[in-house]
Predict the 3D structure of the following.
Amino acid sequence: MGDILRKEVLKAFRTLHKARKIVFKGDLKALTAARDRINEEFKQKKSVDDKKTIEQLIEHAHEVAKELRTTVVQAEEKQPGVFQLKITEETLKLDNKVFDPNVEIPPDARKRMRNQKCCQEK
């Protein structure tokens, strides 16, 4: 592996660990599990020597780090049944649409929804 490619692999490794520390801050169990998983994934791919494959793995590592930073939030139980979310600056926030119980659902949409299997029935 070339020197530049090696630096990119190490950068991806560090990026994942930084994301892990931000996302799971204060949760020792999650921090440890994420660390072990990252380290194990890199160890498994250590013998890969194809440049294109390595570049794809580097890109994947950066995508995973971004996904962690932008979509994973922690919930801390403050009292029974009451949770506080730990949202960071990077957390992706979507518009929250208020449910309208009076909305008209087209008949064909209802039929399609009835015909769909529940995810637990698959």
Remarks:
- Residues 3-23 form the longest helix (21 residues).
- Strands lie at 74-79, 82-86.
